[in-house]
Write a structure and sequence with these properties.
CATH architecture of the largest domain: Sandwich
Number of strands: 28
CATH class of the largest domain: Mainly Beta
CATH superfamily of the largest domain: Exo-inulinase, domain 1
Structural class: alpha+beta
Number of helices: 9
Helix content: 10-25%
Largest sheet: 8 strands, mixed
Number of domains: 2
Bound molecules: zinc ion
Length: 490
């Protein structure tokens, strides 16, 4: 083939595909960030990775005539360079979506004023409320790199499928208040923020097993391109590698005495991954000895269908909660992101009859721990009305241990009467302080600083050394009040 013919063929190829270099993950030169380009039939995805400590990125979806953009940046120079790249593509910008509230993805929005920007109402409210404070704080940290001004003109993102130049775009949220995900179902592309930042050491999530499960689910969908808000573009094949990494973190955290040891193992496992200092941010959290929750607002609580609010009772700040239906539901409000195996849990509580029962009705409230899901957990609770009942058998049911779903109070009553209940002089309508010590398969309940345990459990039914959440347990017919939760980890 002559040179002329080759050149002609290349030209035809260029006209058809739009590029001579149509391979995937092509890097683009001439910009300060790293840019990866992935081409598909109807769409080209450009991932701009900033040269910052967190490998923060933004994605451009290029259809035949339009650009759809996912996130911008925090620093002025990243934003201006990203803007230069957008302009170089010479197409109309249809929308910029802001994925979530962290300002590394939106602080520099003032440079993108000519384009329509969309975010969820909670992100819009957050930026309006907290934006000025964050901008001021960043002034000191960023200096010359602070964006020129704070731009808060953002439209509300509607979660509707949109077809742009024949390409279906689907924005969705996995949980309310979480980041906005973007899926292109036909091209098999997913932007799932923080789920799997690739080519870098990630923030290790508190619920490592939960993340692994989510990744396994994503893997079944066989995405061709997986994008996060940080790091490099990944494919379905990279998921296993990431899962192995998380499993290593999990096992190492169980045996290590210092977070540096865990970091060392993870860096050895993936020596080429960048941003290892991110491990310094998340790993120390796993070595926290105690956590205190005053429970004076609903922040960090998973209400699980309960009606709850911040309150003040007998002069003490607390939260109150009840089940707003006239049925026998008993469950818990979970404290988000807790992972408790062994240690102590302390709580002050007070129960009065809920809105659907008589004023003389009995109340039940306590602590759920080692929670696996809504129906699988250990539980110790008190019955304040039983403490001074006239019937001795009732008094002997003042405190109780149950394990769900298999070892409820009904089952215990038949199978091992008297073994998981005890008497204590509880009084109605007064704050009671409970402390539960858990170790392996043993649990002890102490009340109002008693020297000796009021209740002993030597065979926790779920087994020993199970990790799980901590929750405020609310029994049927009870309006529960809770304050001062302290979890100490062994
Ligand atoms: Zn982020």
């Amino acid at each position: 083939m002559t040179f002329k013919k080759t050149a002609l063929l290349l030209l035809v190829f260029y006209l058809i595909t739009g590029s001579i270099f149509a391979q995937n993950n092509t890097k683009v030169n001439g910009f300060q960030g790293d840019i990866y380009v992935n081409r598909f039939k109807d769409i080209t995805v450009h991932t701009y990775v900033a040269k910052d400590d967190f490998l923060t990125n933004a994605h451009i979806f290029e259809t035949k005539n339009h650009l759809i953009i996912h996130d911008v940046f925090q620093k002025k120079d990243d934003c201006l360079d990203f803007l230069k790249y957008i302009k170089s593509l010479k197409k109309e910008v249809k929308a910029i979506y802001i994925s979530h509230e962290h300002d590394d993805h939106w602080l520099g929005l003032c440079y993108f004023k000519e384009y329509p920007v969309y975010a969820t109402p909670s992100v819009i409210n957050y930026i309006r409320k907290e934006g000025p404070g964050i901008y001021k704080k960043r002034q000191e940290q960023l200096g010359e790199n602070l964006p020129a001004e704070l731009n808060v003109s953002i439209k509300e993102l509607l979660f509707e499928d949109e077809i742009i130049d024949g390409v279906l775009f689907r924005n969705f949220q996995i949980n309310e208040g979480g980041p906005v995900y973007l899926e292109l179902p036909h091209q098999k592309i997913l932007v799932s923020h923080h789920m799997m930042p690739y080519g870098m050491h990630p923030i290790i999530p508190k619920d490592i097993n939960g993340r692994i499960e989510q990744l396994k689910k994503i893997k079944t969908k066989n995405y061709k391109l997986l994008l996060a808000g940080h790091g490099k573009p990944a494919t379905n094949e990279n998921i296993d590698e990431f899962i192995v990494y998380l499993q290593k973190a999990n096992s190492s955290l169980k045996t290590a005495t210092h977070y540096e040891d865990v970091k060392h193992e993870l860096v050895n496992l993936q020596p080429t991954w960048e941003a290892s200092m991110l491990l310094d941010r998340s790993l120390p959290n796993f070595f926290i000895k105690a956590e205190h929750f005053p429970l004076n607002d609903l922040k960090g609580l998973e209400l699980n269908g309960y009606k709850a609010k911040a309150s003040n009772y007998q002069g003490l700040d607390c939260i109150e909660a009840y089940w707003d239906k006239n049925d026998n539901n008993e469950s818990f409000i979970e404290i988000s992101k807790t992972s408790f195996t062994n240690g102590t849990i302390e709580l002050e509580l007070l129960g009065t009859p809920g809105p659907y029962v008589k004023e003389t009705s009995w109340t039940f409230l306590g602590l759920a721990f080692r929670i696996q899901n809504d129906s699988t957990y250990e539980c110790i609770y008190i019955r304040p009305s039983a403490g001074r009942d006239n019937d001795m058998e009732s008094r002997n049911f003042a405190v109780q241990y149950t394990s769900h779903p298999y070892y409820t109070w009904q089952v215990q009553k038949n199978e091992s009467p008297g073994k998981y209940v005890a008497y204590y002089d509880l009084t109605k309508n007064s704050w009671t302080k409970i402390k539960i010590k858990v170790n392996g398969q043993k649990a002890e309940l102490y009340i109002n600083d008693s020297k000796q345990p009021v209740l002993l459990v030597n065979d926790l039914k779920m087994g020993e050394n199970i990790s799980g959440g901590v929750g405020l347990w609310v029994g049927a017919s009870t309006l529960g009040r809770y304050r001062n939760l302290t979890i100490t980890y062994n």
